[in-house]
Amino acid sequence: MARPGVRSPIVTHSPAPVTSAESETTAPDAAPANTRGRVIVASMVGTTIEFFDFYAYATAASLVFPALFFPNETPTTQLLNSFAIFGVAFFARPIGSILFGHFGDRIGRKRTLVASLLVMGIATFLIGVLPTASVPGFTLLAPAILVLLRFCQGVGLGGEWSGAALLATENAPAGKRALYGTFPQLGAPIGFILSNVLFVVLSVTMSDAQFASWGWRLPFLMSAVLVVVGLWVRLKLMETPAFQRVLDEQRVASVPIARVFTTAWRPLILATLAMVATYVLFYMMTAFLMVVGTTPSEDAVPGLGYSRPVFLTMLIIGVVFFGIFTLVSGPLADRVGRRRLLIVVSVAIGVYGLLLQPLVSAGTVGVMATLIIGFTLMGLTFGPMAAFLPEMFKADVRYTGSAVSYNLASVIGAAPAPYALIALWSVLGGDLWLVGGYLALAAVITLVSLVVGSETKDVDFLA
Asked: Which family does it belong to (predicted)?
């Protein structure tokens, strides 16, 4: 009996258990969710910083690192050694994907994204203060330290992309995952433009001697400011609904990589091969064409003979199309499906490779067309990947699965590409027929994986 003066609660029935579907709907109301603006900025700013750092190295590897770190070699050997170190990061990226994927699938997306950004940012800053091989005592030590720092860059980038992609897509409204997935993908063109605009400014305001002496260090040092901005944004994030559901349902994998290999080996293979053409095209358009474009036409292996600022400006114009068509690809992929869009684009990449030499041979107009078409295709193939790859994996192993496939593809597609393309270009004395054939072969590999695979746009992304 209730005490006098105290109103007894009236209980008519026990509360009904909350179903999974209801929890999906009510979870965002139970805790403050990430706002759309915060998701867009946090996913895009991180990859912008990562790609700014990455491009700063790619540009320096083309322009100044050969002479600074391999001064006693022939020009061709200098260039090959520089790009060999450039490729070290791609072999480090799968390690980073396993490391950060492990924690991303166990402790959450937010904290893992912060850690990956720190690893990449610190390594990049240290490259900016690294002594060159001309400093006494650093003839062999400088290249060795550069390899180590490049490895650390790769480890950081190996964990960055997947986390940013999941941050965007796991917070996306229904029917807009591919659109939201384009926001972290925009980090690639934006980072490229920021990095190369800076290199253009340095090139036109400094002599070659000043740039080679200390000017090349500035992009690496300035990245520290961008890292601070990225950390500030990411520390304000909430965990994604999909991973929160994994926690609530106690589906966290003890060893995510083991669960991927035992339960998701087929999508892992298909997702890896689906990225091959994207990687080859990307590094052909950036690192390789930078070399071809700025090599004098009277050299033993003749290039296009453009000055460094002129060709960088042409590249930046092309990258604007990269950004535009990255955004265009999102609504297209949401409407027609990721697989169908990527099949069409992969065929177009193969045709583009076969037409590369005739395009480049058509003078400045042809070179500019080569850049615009190539970067347009790059946007259309790269944009949907932030939705397509994660959709192949369940939420409990999504960080690991998408990160490992994305970065294994970098070993197959990106790591050998600059080195192989330069070698093929040299074999034919400056012609690009074999280079275009290499790209066409990569497109065939990707096309086969897409044909064998299935559409993913309607999968249950919370599962």
From this structure: Belongs to the major facilitator superfamily. Metabolite:H+ Symporter (MHS) family (TC 2.A.1.6) family.
Q: Distance between CA atoms of 84 and 419, rounded to whole angstroms?
A: 7
Whether the CB-CB separation of 347 and 448 falls below 8 Å is answered with no
410 CA to centre of own chain: 9
Question: Cα–Cα distance between 209 and 76 in angstroms, integer?
Answer: 21
Given a contact cutoff of 8 angstroms between Cβ atoms, the answer to whether 69 and 146 are in contact is yes
Helix, strand, or coil (residue 284): helix
Nearest to 178 by CA among 329, 316, 399, 289: 329
- Stated length of the chain: 463
Rounded CA-CA distance 70/56 in Å is 19
**Could you give the residue ranges of the DSSP H alpha helices within 31-64?**
36-63
How far is residue 406's CA from residue 160's CA, in Å, rounded to a whole number? 11
pTM: 0.83
Cα–Cα distance list, 324 to 28, 348, 408 (Å): 32, 18, 27
Q: What angle do CA 200, 144, 148 make, to 5 degrees?
A: 75
Structure tokens given for 13: 């029935």
Which 8-state DSSP code applies to residue 396? G
Please give the share of the chain, as a percent, with pLDDT higher than 70.
Answer: 93
> Which has the higher per-residue pLDDT, 99 or 236?
99
Report pLDDT digits (tens) over 179-194. 999 999 999 899 888 8
Q: What is the pLDDT of residues 14-58, one digit of tens each?
A: 344 444 333 333 333 434 467 888 888 888 887 887 778 777 777
Phi, psi of 15 (to 5 degrees): -60, 140
> What is the rounded CA–CA span in Å between residue 22 and residue 249?
14
Domains of the chain: 34-452 (1.20.1250.20)
Q: Determine phi and psi for 328, rounding to 5 degrees.
A: -60, -35
